[in-house]
Amino acid sequence: MPEPADFAPHHISLVVDTFEPLPPEQERLLSPVRTLPRPVTLVYGAPTVRQQPHAQLARCGLVIAILAAVVGSLPRLVHADGTPIRIVVLKEHGVGSPALAQPYLDRFVAMAAEQNGWSDAKAQYCTSRSAAESYIETDKPQFGILSLAAFLALRVQYHLEVIGQVGVTLIGGRQYSLISKSNAELAGCKGKTLASDHTDDPRFIERVVSAGAFKLADFTLIQTQRPLQTIMKVLNGEAACALIDDAQLAELPHLEGGEALHTVWKSTELPPMAVVAFPKAAANERKHFQENLPKVCDDDGQSVCAEVGIVSLRATDGTDYARVVSAYGK
């Protein structure tokens, strides 16, 4: 049987099939996820090769719906000189290509522009830093929603200011674990093979995730490209251990043979995705955006936030990121 083409958590079946009817405006936000081609059958948390494009769309739709809810919180802001609002969304290790995700984001931003009275608003969805940096250099966005590692890496170069945070279930990155089938503790993994799709940023892993508990040089690395592939390397005996995040860990009970894997080390919990302001954002824009963030999930927005996986959305002055900023360094 061919290896599943990508990682798609079992939760997506709930997103696609079990939403209760919503008010019209909320329905518009989630309709792309509802109307995916069926059937989307999930097997042990992953689609078969034939089903993979549909599941990728579902995954992209879910992530974009979450992030679009944040983008939709922007107040009625357009520069007096007509300069448009630009937002960069960078979710590293996201499933699905930007080409699949961008149409979702375009629809949501268009809706947000209509609701907020913007004359011009656009956002760019990226899954790599290089793509995000290219957009930043050419379009000079005012705001961004960034994965933690990306925020830390780009913070100094682009003079980013944290103004909020988005806590989201299902997309991972809050806590990392070392898992194994044959070793009982971290020491048993050192000197052996370690599979991971998270080792593309050694500085983040060693300074922030590991916090000194290990270095990547302690292992013989097997770089994987997909979340499920990482776990399968251990299940199949191709790797002694694996470094995974919380989303991958949550899927172990749903994988055939997953009960044989156990956690040998776990990181501290890390801050969620950061909502940031770039220098181009005027002081009043930052203030209004920050003030509006907590309102997205209030009242009528509470149910839709819960259904798309937002567990926390709040303004912050960056205090919650001070520890990881210090650990990552300049």
Tag the structure with descriptive keywords.
D-Maltodextrin-Binding Protein, domain 2; 18% strand; alpha/beta; 330 residues; 6-stranded mixed sheet
Task: Please characterize this protein's 3D structure.
- The chain is an alpha/beta fold and about 325 residues long.
- About 40% of the residues lie in helices and about 20% in strands.
- The chain folds into 2 domains: about 65-170 and about 270-330, Periplasmic binding protein-like II (D-Maltodextrin-Binding Protein, domain 2, 3-Layer(aba) Sandwich); about 175-265, D-Maltodextrin-Binding Protein, domain 2 (3-Layer(aba) Sandwich), CATH 3.40.190.10.
- The chain is built from 13 helices and 11 strands.
- The longest helix has 20 residues, at about 50-70.
General shape = globular
Structure classification: alpha/beta
Order of helices and strands: HHHEHEHEHEEHEHEHEHEEHHEH
- Regions with little confidence, pLDDT below 50 for 5+ residues: 1-59
State the end-to-end distance.
Answer: 47 Å
CATH architecture of the largest domain: 3-Layer(aba) Sandwich
State the oligomer: single chain
What CATH calls the topology of the largest domain is: D-Maltodextrin-Binding Protein, domain 2
Order of strands, main sheet, comes to 2-1-3-10-4-11
Q: Helix coverage percent of residues? A: 25-40%
Number of strands: 11
How many helices?
13
